[in-house]
Amino acid sequence: MSAAPEGIVLPLAGEDGAALIEFAVSLPLLVVLVVGIFDFGGAFNTKQELNNAMREAAHFGANQPTNDLELSRLSPPSIDAIRFLVDAYLQNAHLGDCGLSAVAEPSYSGSPPVWVYSSTGGGCSLTLSISRSNVVQETIGGATVRMLYTNVQIVYPYQWHFNSVIQLLVPGSSFALTTIRSDATAVNMN
Q1: Phi/psi of residue 104, each to 5°?
Q2: Which runs of consecutive H residues, i.e. helices, occur in the chain?
Q3: Which tens digit of pLDDT belongs to each residue from 90-141?
Q4: Mean pLDDT (the chain, rounded)
Q5: Sign (positive/negative) of CA torsion 43, 45, 47, 50?
Q6: What is the pLDDT of residue 178?
Q7: Cβ-contact 90, 53 below 8 angstroms
Q8: What is the DSSP string of 119-158?
């Protein structure tokens, strides 16, 4: 290495240049790490909120009478009440409801029946499925008992920021998970 003429300081010579190169190499890794922690923390928090909402909805649905399920297949009051409970829970948790409260009628299919609310609004799309008359058989003291249970499921969108940052390290790559799923089940009380 040639020495600079006296009185002239070469920029980024020696240890300073090596430190700058190390920083330039490690900065993308640090950014990916920080954004990854932020994103996965947000996804975990969203999953916990959805788990809580589904648990509350299943418990609420299990305590509702099932006699309205035979009267109106399109939108029974107990099914609508579960939908409004989930919508309120999402709003109180500061999660977007994707227009869930504005869905007029759910689709209905299957046996046991499943009511599905598909909503798109506010730039997102979610699916809420409610089934209130599922049957499970248990043997208690030698006798077979049929119990009805309520199951509530949600497929909720999650916007990852990690995709744009991971491309700093691996151009063209993407993190494919775009939804978070949650469900809960509770035995009906009547």
Answers
A1: -70, -55
A2: 15-62, 77-92, 162-166
A3: 999 999 889 898 887 888 887 778 899 999 887 888 999 999 888 888 888 8
A4: 84
A5: negative
A6: 83
A7: yes
A8: EEETTEEEEEEEEEEEEEEEEETTEEEEEEEEEEEEEEE-
Q: Answer whether 126's CB lies under 8 Å from 157's CB.
A: yes
Tell me how far apart the alpha carbons of residues 81 and 69 are, in angstroms, rounded to a whole number. Answer: 13
> Which one is predicted more confidently, 170 or 182?
182
Q: Is 10 helix (H, G, I), strand (E, B) or coil?
A: coil
Contact 77, 61 (CB under 8 A): no
> Quick one: what percent of the chain has pLDDT higher than 70?
86
What's residue 137's pLDDT? 85
pLDDT in tens, 147-167: 889 999 999 998 877 777 776
Instruction: Say if residues 86 and 103 touch (Cβ distance below 8 Å).
Output: no
129 Cβ contact list (under 8 Å, min separation 6) = 114, 115, 116, 117, 151, 152, 153, 154
Q: How far apart are CA 118 and CA 105, in angstroms?
A: 9
Give me the helix-helix angle, 77-92 and 15-62, nearest 10°: 150
Opening angle at CA 18, ends 33 and 169, nearest 5: 30
19 CB burial (10 A radius; 0-12, 13-18, 19+): exposed
